[in-house]
Amino acid sequence: MATNQHLPMKIAVFSTKSYDQEYFEKYANDASNSFSFFETALTKDTANLSIGFDVICVFVNDNVDKNTIEILSKNGIKLIALRCAGYNNVDIEAAKNNHIKVVRVPAYSPEAVSEHAVALILTLNRKTHKAYNRVREGNFSLKNLIGFNLNGKTIGVIGTGQIGKTFCQIMKGFGCKIIAFDVLKSEELIASGVRYLPLNEVFEQSDILSLHCPLNSNTKHIINKASIALMKEGVMIINTSRGALINTVDVIQGLSSKKIGYLGIDVYEQEENLFFEDFSERIIPDDLLLRLNSFPNVLITSHQAFFTKEAMAEITTTTLDNIKAFEKNQELVNEVK
Ligand code: NAD
Known about the structure:
Layout: E1 10-13, H1 18-27, E2 34-37, E3 55-58, H2 66-74, E4 79-82, H3 92-97, E5 101-103, H4 110-126, H5 128-136, E6 154-158, H6 162-173, E7 177-181, H7 187-191, E8 195-196, H8 199-205, E9 208-211, H9 225-230, E10 235-239, H10 248-256, E11 260-265, H11 287-293, E12 298-300, H12 309-327
Parallel strand pairs: 1-2, 1-3, 3-4, 4-5, 6-7, 6-9, 7-8, 9-10, 10-11, 11-12
Helix pairs in contact: 1-12, 4-6
Bound molecules: nicotinamide-adenine-dinucleotide.
Nicotinamide-adenine-dinucleotide is lined by residues 85-86, 107, 110, 113, 158-164, 181-184, 212-215, 218-219, 240-242, 266-267, 303, 305-306.
């Protein structure tokens, strides 16, 4: 069992951006623990930066695979503190075998992510991003800016956990009909009028599909050639969950054939070495992303759905509480087992 004999805790924070450091410095009141901030992502090649630390703190694109975990273990790391909800980038089994505990921030602000999904829908539909640029350049034409009413449309929600649930509630406010698929049904949502259907029927009936399930072996490439074939002509697909829920090559085909009418993604299958970085003066080393970006009906944001003041405050305070509980040998309420 992992124990923590030597206090205070020394914590290495990987993939640090200025805003991460700002929030940690704002909320870390306990002077006994020391934080070191590394801009680099955690991979097996950078894992030796953990020498001398007790805890590592990582984010969505750090690669905490078996090789990395074995190096962390050799270096005496006892706790991996994820400052996010999803943990698909951590080999939980390997962590367990190496006696390293894993904690996460299970629900920091479902509203932040679901509101961003709605922002993608509204932008793609009403084309405010294009209108903004046009008007700034003195072009007041409405040509090609036509949208559709959300009222009365069918929204298919895949995954009705914390985020999917708030997304359903917001879309009900627009007067939409909500259908959903989840391996667990929410009685609360059923009572509010959401109808659970088999997955294929959700694909067939939705005008807009929004993905809110975790990435795992059952959900990887849930949007693929076969599922796209079932969808309505001109369907809108929104993904604020994890990139690999979508088979990018198949979606590009769907966009080319006009079967997919709109695509809004905050996450991308191969975002790991791109998102959160500034490539504006570099060659983007990803032809699939460039192809996606070439469609007028595709909107990509770089994993910013979580990024609100409220969510950052909650992510930081929960991460600090998780580390504090470990330090004090208390129950780890947010442990990933
Ligand atoms: P959650 O655990 O509360 O909900 C996930 C839901 O998916 C659960 O109801 C679960 O039963 C369901 N599910 C599991 N397997 C499924 C399957 N095979 N098919 C359909 N549904 C399935 O998680 P959450 O807090 O709502 O977060 C959902 C996802 O959003 C996370 O896994 C994470 O990947 C992603 N996320 C993205 C961002 C971002 O900034 N873009 C931020 C936070 C979370």
